Amino acid sequence: MAPTSPLMPKAVAAWAKALSVLASRNSVPPRDNVIDGGFVVPPPRCIVSPAQEHIVATLFKSWLRIRDAVLSRLRSPQAQPVKLSNKCWRSLLDVSGGLHTGVKSTTRSGTRHGEMRDVLEHSFGMDKASSFMDAPIYWAGEFITSVGLPDAEIAKAIVWELCELNFRHELEALDGILDGSGMTWTDRHALLNQCWVGLGNKVDVVTEANKGLGATFVMDRLPFLQILHKVMRTWQGVKPVELLDQFPEESSAHNHRGHVERIEFNLAMFYCESFLNVYGRAASIPHHL
After folding, report:
1. Is it the case that residue 112 has pLDDT exceeding 80?
2. DSSP 3-state assignment of 92?
3. By the 8 A CB rule, do 5 and 49 touch?
4. What are the DSSP E strand ranges found in the chain?
5. Contact, 144 vs 64, CB < 8 A?
6. Chain-centre distance of CA 115, in angstroms?
7. Is the pLDDT of residue 251 over 70?
8. What torsion, rounded to 10 degrees, do the Cα atoms 14, 1, 92, 55 define?
9. C-beta of residue 5 within 8 angstroms of C-beta of residue 158
10. CA distances from 61 to 58, 143, 148, 273 (A)
11. Residue 123: helix, strand or coil by DSSP?
12. Chain centroid to CA 259: how far?
């Protein structure tokens, strides 16, 4: 289930409904039939789900301390993205935020914290936590105080970026598995990048929030839904009829908006179900800010 924190941006309704429908079916593929589907950045529930506000505040600061290092690797054409489970990201944030003492432990949790300390050092180029624990924290060039939660607008923007980065990378990864178009990687990548404003591995909250597939109004999402429709038409699997037909041309007919909304839901449904079947977990989805 999606986190219910007031710091969570609002999911696009059609995509949230698709996840809800799948959750109500309670159908998860056998674990031996799925691919390890880690996240390239922390899923929001890692940060906003704890009940204690001071823990949430610390986790926000933990992420901002390591954000530049994580995103630098994510954007590097020479490096594979580091994909971690929800639990591993939480452990990594515990380490970077000083919530874990660093004392070696043989428990499963202690072992995971030790492994995440190694990930910080070897994958993200960050030495011992003490070397960056006292560094100043910034978001969009603005200094973030080390006391308390960030302002609500800033917190939502931070979470929106996490949602969007995970969604874009998951869509690209799933397309790499299901696409049967025969397009070259360059052409396919260019097509996928038309599904959003900007690039798949780089998100600018100021210029890209409430645009693309996360635009506030469905008719503003229309051109991006048309591209997503084109992308998903070549996927393997039993497709909804909306993917078998051409995307309808823009029309002044009174029911055109309702038709687009139905197509959006069916695209979201096919996407989320395909993702669940491949990775065995719920997909990251577009959000408004």
Report:
1. no
2. helix
3. yes
4. 137-139, 142-144
5. yes
6. 23
7. no
8. 110
9. no
10. 5, 11, 9, 34
11. coil
12. 27
Phi, then psi, of 199 in degrees rounded to 5: -115, 155
Which residue in this structure is represented by tokens 């696409």?
A: 179
Q: Widest CA span of the chain, in angstroms?
A: 66
Question: At a CB cut-off of 8 Å and minimum separation 6, what does 71 contact?
Answer: 41, 202
| pTM of the full structure | 0.89
- Element of type H or E holding 88: helix 86-96
In contact, 27 and 287? CB cutoff 8 Å: no
Asked if 176 and 183 touch (Cβ cutoff 8 Å), the reply is no
C-alpha dihedral, 48 to 53 to 58 to 59, nearest 10°: -10
E strand or H helix at 200: none
The two structure tokens encoding residue 9: 């941006």
Cβ contact 160:9 at 8 Å? yes
Q: Is the pLDDT of residue 130 over 70?
A: no
C-beta of residue 280 within 8 angstroms of C-beta of residue 31: yes
Strand partners, 287: 11
- Which residue's structure tokens are 């996840």? 19
165, 40 Cβ separation under 8 angstroms: yes
Structure tokens at 84: 């971690």
Within 10 A of 78 (CB to CB), how many other CB atoms are there? 5
Here the tokens at position 277 are 């079947």
**Whether 289 contacts 157, CB under 8 Å:** yes
Higher per-residue confidence, 28 vs 69: 69
Q: Are 286 and 35 in contact (CB under 8 A)?
A: no
d(CA 162, CA 86): 13
Distance CA 96, CA 63 (A): 8
Q: How many CA atoms within 13 Å lie on the side-chain side of 12?
A: 29
Across 138-156, average pLDDT: 86
Token code pair at residue 92 = 């990594």
Task: Tokens for 61, please give them.
Answer: 């600061």
